[in-house]
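[retry 2/3] Transcriptional regulator: previous attempt timed out, resubmitting with same input.
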Amino acid sequence: MSSQERSAPRRRNPRGQGQVLKAQLVDAAAKLLSTLDQPETLTLRQVAREVGVAPASIYSHFPDLSALIQHVLRLRYEELARLMDQAAQSAPDPLVDLVARCAAYVRWGVGQPGHYRTLFGGRMPDDLVPGSAHGAGAELLEAVVTSLAAAAEGERKQPSAEQQWQAGLMLWTALHGLVSLYNDHGNIPWPPLDDLIADLLSLHTARPADEIAALLPQCGDAPGLAPDSI
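[retry 2/3] Transcriptional regulator: success.
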């Protein structure tokens, strides 16, 4: 094959355009990850093919595939944490704050099943695990722990910090189980999603489910997801 017949190398981006390619790589990786059962099965070649560049081009922006995946996961964690914060920003009391955060979590997970699976369907990098000292996921879990403890204040003997953490972790476990089962087993005749959220939070707050359900309309919706359409 002559040199003229060989594929020409990809032309270097104009100054300032490198960030465009980086954003395209991140978007492509996020799209592909949302279709995979395990993030570990993603390859650099798949990402490069999706964008239309040579695999070597990725190394200008990320040292390896793991760094790219961690970047995508961190962005998704930040997106979810931001949505939960926004849902609770005008909450008039701790219970509404808790309900708003948990409803936002569930609605996002059900409305974005591929992205939810990307975050929680495989092994998470250590620096993203909720509970790690500086993990991106720590903010998400700590907010639930704080609002759960505040909602329970005055209702019973104030628990220790360790007990508060354990209660928050158990609530997150229940929320994750709800989202995962709802997404993966659509053939089950599920009740309306808001009813499930209310019943779950009733169990973890010792408040009547009807009281929780009455707060849900105040909590807003995840983008593109109306609870009465589920």
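[retry 2/3] Transcriptional regulator: The radius of gyration is 21 Å.
[retry 2/3] clearing retry counter.
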